[in-house]
Amino acid sequence: MQTLLTLAWRNLWRKKRRTFITLSSVMFATILAIVLMSMISGMQEQMVDSIVRNTTGYLQIQDVLYHDEPSMDHALEYGDEVKDAVAAFEEEISYTVPRIQGFSLAAKDMGTRGVMVNGIDPKKEDRMNNLSSNITSGQMFDSGDEYAVIAEGLASLLEVEVGDSLVLLGQGFQGMTAVGTYKIGGIIRFFMPEKNNTMVYLPLEQAQYYFAAPDRLTNLIIMTEDEDLVPRLAKNLESQLDPEWYAVKTWEELMPDKLAAFEAREAQVAVFAWVLYIVVGFGIFGTIMTMMFERLREFGILLSIGLKRVKLAAICMIETLAISFLGVLAGVTAGFLIVLRLHFNPVRLADELGEIMIDMGIEPILSFSIAPEIFIYQGMVIFFIALIVGLYPVTRVLRMDMVHSA
Fold it and tell me: How far apart are CA 158 and CA 166, in angstroms?
């Protein structure tokens, strides 16, 4: 065995050009697979993160009726039962984000517009989605302030600016009339036109007073650092809350249309991956087949002077193993460096593609994932493909006519 290993290693470097060509085909196939799959995974992670941070969070505690009928009458009482349930799992929960939300009419002079009034804790919102970084004029309020921050598109539609007053009229808790006049202290910009034309933000206590719903929330968002903990955490919270009054919803349950879109996308990615692997396999096969034809005379001479076919086939297999391993190792290393750079310096998209992503509520950048499983899985797949293709020289040696080859 030692002799076969020595011969195989010497064969590799006896014709360096041939070895480097074969090794390069495996390496570039690995790089291609890693970069493409990293991009696909990165885009999916970006979409999930955008949904979680800008809309639903990972989990929400709601009144049991709110999900089916999102009315202010179904705002939950943020009392000791909810607080104790959250405190029981504080090691798994990073932080909570309280919100109270409801539709109203916003008016300025003779102009009116339907808006979504959001009562928020500004510091907790900033931790979740860095909301205040989107302020274009004025400033974000603190918890004790009494002014509003409105979306840029809404300000344009109502022809208002910082310092003007805004009248809000809606329905509060249990049929109470919600009415209030608020000074505009800041204007905020969103990528999504829907949000940019409808959002009004008030300090949480001011919004609760406006809706006549003190100590009530429409939803309590729960954030965790590990997405894998979400299903278990949801079950644990449900066990601590009275199911007749409270419901715990994951982001998948809150956004079923988005989840269905992700599942369809995963099916498309699986098809794309198989197409990629087939193309890669044929690319490697073409290189190895070319190298094989160059060595037919060499193999014929070796067999004619007495080298057994089995040993020659074993040498070819060892060469294939070595080239596949070195090619995959080089490809994973180079692919990691490329993806790492793209991960920290994402490509910003413009024109129509960028506008499509903005309409979906996603920042128009091309994200790349650096999840370890991408590099491990793609490296293993390409190594396996290279091994399968590498069986060609072995079978050719075992069935070769050495008279004609020599």
Answer: 9
Q: In angstroms, rounded to a whole number, what is the distance separating the alpha carbons of residues 150 and 148?
A: 6
Phi, psi (rounded to 5 degrees) for 346: -65, 155
pTM above 0.85, yes or no: no
Q: Would you call 142 helix, strand, or coil by DSSP?
A: coil
pLDDT of residue 154: 93
List, for residues 295-342, the tens digit of each pLDDT value.
Answer: 777 777 777 777 777 777 777 777 778 888 888 899 999 999 999 998
| 203 Cβ neighbours under 8 A, 6+ residues apart | 119, 120, 121, 122, 141, 142, 143, 144, 145, 146
Report the Cα 175 to chain-centroid distance in Å.
Answer: 41
Residue ranges of the domains in the chain?
2-53+258-405, 96-214
* Cα angle, residue 168 at apex, residues 167 and 171 outer, rounded to 5°: 150
* Alpha carbon distance 186, 120 (integer Å): 15
